Automatic annotation (TrEMBL):
Protein name in the entry: ABC transporter permease
Signal peptide bounds: none
Membrane topology classification: Multi-pass membrane protein
Oxidoreductase keyword on record: no
Pfam families cross-referenced by the UniProt entry: FtsX, MacB_PCD
Domain MacB-like periplasmic core: 22-234, 521-643
ABC3 transporter permease C-terminal domain residues: 299-414, 687-797
UniProt keyword list: Cell membrane, Membrane, Transmembrane, Transmembrane helix
Xref: PANTHER family: ABC-TYPE MACROLIDE FAMILY EXPORT SYSTEM PERMEASE COMPONENT 2, MEMBRANE COMPONENT OF TRANSPORTER-RELATED
Coiled coil: none
InterPro entries: ABC3_permease_C, MacB_PCD, Macrolide_Exporter_MacB
Presence of the UniProt keyword Transmembrane helix in the record: yes
Localisation: Cell membrane
Length: 807
């Protein structure tokens, strides 16, 4: 019996091969696209799940309400970890974590590597596979644990455990002993480093052991199995009053609002398991991404599958009119409902199997390009996981059932006598078809509108003036092999008089995200005349204002003619507004550091966007203090050929520092990297919109062919009675045009609400204009008309005698 079903199904599929090919192509493209998108969603949600105790790992953060908007920050003071573990027995293990970079020396070899300062409990909390040695201890202060790839690059094929290496991450190199080797960290790990060093080796550790106001690292805890994180959070109030007493007084004095239990500071725990998708708390480990982007991927994958299913159903319903007589004859010959249902499901099943096979093969083919475009790390091996296999089976069953059940039930309800007479009622199937087409084009229009708005916003972010010169300035990371301040001075001396080079300066912090991946910031708080002032802090060298093209609105820049400038500060307008209401600020002294004399304000620069445009401009203070080692050299160019000058700057750097890699980049490249999530979302929307429109057009083309086939006799009669080609094309097209317009009207409020919410994440954003919706509608109409018109014109030009004869 099964063999007979398959043979009959094959004959029917071959007979309708044109429409079935359209179904297979549309469904295969949808399967390929959705497979890649769903694997990406799975990958993003899988971050850090490989740790054995991940359900009990939490990160500490504080919440403070300075200005009505709660600030959540993970930065902690050095004595915090030991104090909180001593006071709360529910904390089983605890570790402090700080990131950095170091120059590694072994014999004659020198290599720059990333380092992570951590306590001995780190490897008791986080479980990375051990390759060799005692990676779980970090018992001694001079122990280090390195990754497999770091061991390979430093020692080659030689044994690494027990060997001594030298790390230079401060002013002086220090010797360390390799205690163990762990496997390289997987792509879905929030931690990314080469070498683990005991936290006690952080610069200034002993000094900071006495200070609770210097918060510069993260703290993670492994809770006991019986510990309740919510109960633990609610019991932190006495701890806050014990160790944050001075800060609480300052917050109460400055009018900060309570955040919990009438306290101005609350200590909280955030689960490590979901931290990769947590952008609400500042300072989460790794590079967290907005959960909205991952959900957008999931929704788009569902949309694409839904459009393909709608195509399948519409084509099956349309073909049901042609196969009505076949069903009538089968019923007359004694076929039962379940036999007919099984026959049609067999055909659907065969189409789905072929489409899924082609779809998976297509996904494998485009996977490398997908990973590159979306900066993903997925592989088709992920499909072999039990959860993925169940998901694929569920999707397959759903599509087969959705695409096969309704058309089969529809044909089985036809009355045999009416079918054989050729009087099938097509009103209800036509209504269902129209509803499905409206859903299809609504989704396509929503994706088109979202694409246009994200493209507009990204263009706005890239083109908006930031208040400094970003197109003519090169940022060069100095690295650990040379002293930063000396490097700036040496390179300035070498560059003086070189054609095209206008100015050279240095800074502790970069702009945007440079080639070294750094995106650090430093925030300082101090008391001034009875209230707290908070400001971003930047250590700089001479000519910084000139090099960056900043505009002085009052006072002057730092100058070598004034020796006292080493204890002075240049601030921006936002910072000046906090000082005596912004009046006569130049010349005033600010007690910015407890261990230094008050610093004099010598200049005010116009506000500039030193952070991304997600955030408003914040207060900024620039100092010449030597407590900040210069990390970057900034070079400003002015010529007609910036690319050639970039090459000459690189050659000059390599001549001046032959042992230090040139890793420079333009500041506009750095600032654009801040919006990689938005660029990724834009790429996703563009790709999804194109795929959705293509699949919709495949369905629309097939439906228009079926409609024309069903109306062949009507078209022939109208031509005989004198209708023109234009009239017939308009007759066939107007119904579809109405459906596309209705779909656009439905899509407008959904797309507006979605993108309005997304734009709220930017301090600087575009206005959503009406013409975006009009343009999306025109695009949908043009594509629909191009799809339909060819078949409509072909039908209108056909010989009416042949059409009537065939009928």
């Amino acid at each position: 019996m099964l063999k007979n079903y398959i043979k009959t199904a094959w004959r029917n599929l071959w007979k309708g091969r044109v429409f079935n090919s359209m179904n297979i192509v549309g469904l295969a493209v949808a399967v390929a696209s959705s497979t890649l998108l769903l694997l990406t969603v799975y990958f993003e949600f899988s971050y850090d799940k490989f740790h054995k105790n991940v359900d009990n790992i939490y990160q500490f953060y504080t919440t403070i309400n300075h200005t009505g908007v709660p600030e959540k920050n993970t930065a902690m003071a050095v004595p915090f970890a030991r104090a909180v573990k001593a006071d709360y027995p529910g904390i089983k293990n605890i570790t402090r974590v700080a990131s950095g970079g170091a120059l590694v020396t072994y014999g004659d070899k020198q290599i720059s590597k990333g380092i992570l300062f951590a306590d001995a409990d780190f490897f008791r909390i986080f479980t990375f596979p051990v390759v060799e040695g005692n990676a779980g201890a970090l018992t001694n202060l001079n122990d280090v644990v390195i990754t497999r790839s770091a061991a390979k690059s430093i020692f080659g094929d030689q044994p690494a455990v027990g060997k001594s290496i030298t790390l230079k991450y401060g002013e002086k190199p220090q010797p360390f002993l390799v205690a163990g080797i762990i496997d390289d960290m997987p792509a879905n790990s929030s931690f990314e480093t080469d070498i683990f060093v005991r936290f006690e080796n952080v610069q200034g550790y002993q000094e900071n052991l006495k200070h609770w106001d210097n918060q510069n690292h993260r703290v993670y805890a492994l809770l006991s199995d019986n510990a309740n994180p919510q109960s633990l959070e609610s019991s932190f109030s006495p701890f806050i009053h014990k160790y944050f007493a001075d800060q609480l007084k300052d917050l109460i004095r400055d009018g900060a609002k309570p955040v919990f239990n009438n306290d101005r500071i609350s200590l909280n725990l955030v689960p490590f398991k979901g931290s990769h998708l947590n952008t609400d708390v500042s300072g989460i480990q790794g590079s967290p991404i907005n959960k909205t982007y991952v959900i957008a991927l999931l929704v788009i994958a569902v949309f694409i599958l839904l459009i393909a299913c709608i195509n399948f159903i519409n084509l099956a319903v349309a073909r049901s009119f042609i196969r009505a007589r076949e069903v009538g004859v089968r019923k007359t010959l004694g076929a039962g409902k379940w036999q007919l249902l099984t026959q049609f499901w067999t055909e659907t099943l065969m189409i789905c199997i072929v489409a899924f096979a082609i779809g998976i093969a297509l996904a494998a083919f485009i996977l490398p390009g997908f990973n590159a475009a979306f900066r993903s790390h997925i592989s088709l091996n992920m499909l072999l996981q039990p959860m993925q296999l169940l998901s694929i089976a569920g999707i397959f069953i759903f599509i087969t059932a959705a695409a096969g059940f309704y058309p089969a039930m529809l044909m089985m309800r036809y009355k045999t006598t009416q079918v054989l007479k050729g009087s099938v009622n097509t009103q209800k199937p036509g209504q269902v078809r129209n509803i499905l087409l409206v859903v299809q084009f609504s989704i396509a229009t929503i994706l088109t509108i979202c694409t246009l708005i994200t493209w507009q916003q990204i263009s706005y972010l890239q083109q908006k003036p930031l208040g400094y010169s970003k197109t003519e300035v090169i940022s060069i990371p100095i690295g650990q092999s040379i002293n930063g301040t000396e490097a700036v001075e040496r390179f300035r001396n070498q560059a003086t008089g070189q054609a095209g080079i206008v100015a050279v300066s240095g800074g502790y912090l970069n702009f945007g995200r440079g080639n070294d991946g750094s995106a650090n910031r430093s925030i300082l708080g101090f008391n001034y005349k009875g209230h707290e002032i908070r400001t971003h802090e930047q250590g700089i060298e001479y000519d910084y204002v000139k090099t960056l093209g900043l505009k002085l609105v009052a006072g002057r820049d730092f100058s070598k003619d004034y020796p006292a400038d080493s204890n002075s500060v240049v601030i921006n307008e936002k910072m000046a507004a906090q000082i005596d209401g912004g009046k006569d600020v130049v010349g005033k002294y600010l007690p910015m550091h407890d261990d230094k004399k008050p610093q004099q304000v010598i200049g005010i620069v116009q506000d500039y966007n030193f952070e991304s445009l997600h955030d408003d401009i914040a207060p900024m203070s620039m100092e010449m203090t030597r407590q900040y080692a210069m990390q970057y050299v900034f070079v400003r160019l002015k010529s007609n050929n910036l690319q050639n000058d970039f090459k000459r700057v690189k050659a000059l750097w390599n001549t001046t520092f032959p042992n230090t890699e040139f890793n420079g980049s333009w500041l506009d490249e750095n600032t654009q990297r801040q919006y990689k999530s938005e660029q990724r979302l834009s790429t996703i929307f563009i790709s999804a919109a194109i795929i959705a429109i293509v699949i919709s057009c495949i369905g629309l083309l097939a439906i228009s062919i079926m409609v024309i086939v069903q109306r062949t006799k009507e078209i022939g009669i109208r031509k005989v009675l004198g209708s023109s080609v234009a009239n017939i094309v308009m007759l066939i097209s107007k119904e579809f045009v109405r459906l596309v317009l209705l779909a656009a009207i439905i899509a407008f409020p959904i797309a507006w609400f979605t993108m309005h919410k997304w734009l709220e994440g930017f301090a600087y954003r575009i206005t959503i204009h009406w013409w975006i919706f009009a343009l999306a509608t025109v695009i949908a109409l043009v594509i629909a008309m191009l799809t339909i018109s060819y078949q409509a014109i072909r039908a209108a030009l056909a010989n009416p005698v042949r059409s009537l004869k065939n009928e």
